[in-house]
Amino acid sequence: xxxxxxxxxxxxxxxxxxxxxxxxxxxxxxxxxxxxxxxxxxxxxxxxxxxxxxxxxxxxxxxxxxxxxxxxxxxxxxxxxxxxxxxxxxxxxxxxxxxxxxxxxxxxxxxxxxxxxxxxxxxxxxxxxxxxxxxxxxxxxxxxxxxxxxxxxxxxxxxxxxxxxxxxxxxxxxxxxxxxxxxxxxxxxxxxxxxxxxxxxxxxxxxxxxxxxxxxxxxxxxxxxxxxxxxxxxxxxxxxxxxxxxxxxxxxxxxxxxxxxxxxxxxxxxxxxxxxxxxxxxxxxxxxxxxxxxx
Amino acid sequence: xxxxxxxxxxxxxxxxxxxxxxxxxxxxxxxxxxxxxxxxxxxxxxxxxxxxxxxxxxxxxxxxxxxxxxxxxxxxxxxxxxxxxxxxxxxxxxxxxxxxxxxxxxxxxxxxxxxxxxxxxxxxxxxxxxxxxxxxxxxxxxxxxxxxxxxxxxxxxxxxxxxxxxxxxxxxxxxxxxxxxxxxx
Lengths: 295, 185
What we know:
The structure holds two protein chains of two kinds.
Chain A: H1 2-31, H2 41-50, H3 59-78, H4 93-99, H5 102-114, H6 117-148, H7 153-162, H8 173-187, H9 198-201, H10 212-236, H11 243-263, H12 269-294
Helix pairs in contact in A: 1-10, 1-11, 2-10, 3-5, 3-10, 5-6, 6-8, 6-12, 8-10, 8-12, 10-11
Chain B: H1 6-11, H2 13-20, E1 23-25, H3 36-40, E2 52-54, E3 62-66, H4 71-83, E4 89-93, H5 96-99, E5 121-123, H6 130-145, H7 151-157, H8 159-170
Parallel strand pairs in B: 1-2, 3-4, 4-5
Helix pairs in contact in B: 2-6
């Protein structure tokens, strides 16, 4: 039974992630007053990329991208989708925090092997950005764990189902707002699209990826989108009883994120850090203090 | 995507993928690049054809050579072309890469681009309108369908001749040959 749940959860994550990539391109096009690509365009791109002859730059180049993909897949297994939660009994939020670091690490290893200057700029930006959003993220997760007195994400979802969503319950409100504020940085969309930045540093860590390697990196990016949104839905929007409700909640959050993505220009790295360490961190810290005092 | 193309998709997914996902190198090689921003942005919207500009040659499979090719640019063009993963398609844009155009007696531009890298199709005109890019893209689809867009295979087969032509213009090339050259020269 667990095997079925593992496969089902991975397939759902892949489907939702790739569907969201296509949907984002379509919605962006409609906002630009264009017709836009068909919604299946990421699938067409993936078919094309896996049929091209990629250029490898060494052993670590091949293994790093696989490490990043594996890290994302493990995080997907740890997140409950409705009633499907194959691995969420093992470790909960703490393990998720550690495992979320594997994806950028793998990309950094892989890109470092290619030895392109744009890659090193992109990787240093990625690590700086991660340092920016992980301080508020840590405060938020501490507040959640203190409020619900557990590290198990399944129990957190269950308690929200019994009472109400964490986002609308009073002590958790500030932490929820802080998560909304850092969500674009976690997903790496436009105001915080500093890492890829195709116009500045030729798509950063991806600069030497071609063919199947780029295909794997695209899948990893789609899974990253899924993980960022699914964590928010599970922690603050009450998770879901069945996968369909979960999907609808994710869709609402993602479409709102795309609107922000379409409306804002890209920040510079020091502007991004200044923003991330000011308002989201302040909200998250005050939220943590409120949770501890009201306990 | 047409619904009646479903059988084609099931039969040859690779070919259809190459057709409908043409990612172009955003490399400004001449004055013709001025026609590319309107065609990729809101006015003409190349993305509905699956044509998307990408920042690096590694991710691309379509190379638009837009406008005159000076000797210095030719060097960058050859390096970019060799970095693209196969299969890759090249389209010469404007009359200058075809036969020199208004620069035909210039000392510093090359006249026939297809002596140096293989070209799959040409767009004539000085300047061609952005609509011409889409006509070219649809022609390229037919060529890929009939397996006639084989520039990358021609480059592999007659790499010796292409390399000789390149060295005639550029002198000794400072990068190793992409494919093995049979026979010492």
